[in-house]
Design a protein that fits this description.
It is built from twelve helices and no strands. The protein is an all-alpha fold. The longest helix is centred in the middle third of the chain and has 34 residues.
Length: 262
């Protein structure tokens, strides 16, 4: 266990001392504040009319209320739940190759499996922190705008949907880690991440029938943001999502254990 704690402490220290942590936190907080600004413009049309961009964005909001805002927060959590944790994993696993220190790390008296587990745990904690920042800042922005329709019941229901859908999205970062490890850099996994986002959106629009079986679409149909007529996730959906996450983890650990890293 001492080896594992040493690996975990090393990964934690690297993240804590990096600028990347604070950049991602500020980015997630900024996006949430921008959502608050959009709701403010929707509540006060005279503000939106001064900007063509704001006017276009607020046109998609039927009513400046907590109901509409909560739906937007969930959608934001789903998109950033793929993008944010994906970038985090790419950075955590890819920097060893870009900085050319992978050989030094693997020469340490710590098993490769423990290094991978430590990296995933730090990535998970980091990703959850970002989602908390997003939701917390979003709530503050919503109260600052003084949206109508607040209720404890709606809040309880929304925070459960937001938390579970975001968590289901986060755990799908393991295949991104596998692609990062195989490619030994940043470019290919970033392309893979963008491809995931594109396919997910296209599946909702063009092939809604496959959404219960496409891992990255399952959190969206669970949350209900896909609409009342979208397919509902079944037991098979959650099994597929879990298997995708587990296989991504196993694949990453196996690559670090058996692949030639020279």
């Amino acid at each position: 266990m001492k080896e594992f704690y040493a690996a975990l402490h090393t990964e934690f220290t690297k993240v804590l001392k990096s600028r990347m942590l604070w950049v991602t936190i500020l980015f997630f907080a900024f996006i949430a504040l921008m959502m608050g600004m959009i709701m403010l413009a929707a509540k006060h049309p005279e503000i939106a009319n001064k900007s063509a961009i704001l006017s276009t964005k607020t046109s998609f909001i039927s009513q400046a209320s907590w109901f509409a805002y909560n739906g937007l927060l969930i959608q934001l959590g789903l998109v950033l739940g793929v993008l944010g944790p994906g970038i985090v994993v790419i950075w955590i696993f890819g920097r060893e190759y870009s900085d050319r220190v992978i050989k030094d790390i693997l020469a340490l008296p710590v098993s490769r499996g423990k290094i991978v587990v430590a990296k995933f745990l730090i990535a998970l904690a980091w990703s959850i922190l970002l989602i908390i920042v997003l939701y917390g800042t979003g709530l503050i922005a919503g109260f600052a705008v003084k949206l109508d329709g607040w209720s404890k019941e709606a809040f309880s229901n929304n925070i459960v949907k937001f938390s579970l859908s975001s968590l289901m999205t986060i755990v799908l970062f393991t295949p991104v880690a596998l692609v990062t490890s195989i490619s030994r850099g940043y470019l290919l996994p970033m392309g893979f991440l963008i491809l995931i986002l594109i396919i997910t959106q296209l599946s909702f629009v063009g092939l809604p029938g496959i959404t219960p079986y496409f891992p990255w679409a399952i959190p969206g149909i669970y949350s209900g943001v896909a609409g009342p007529f979208s397919p509902k996730p079944g037991v098979a959906s959650y099994i597929i999502l879990g298997l995708t996450s587990v296989l991504g983890f196993i694949g990453t650990a196996a690559w670090w254990r058996y692949a030639d890293q020279h």
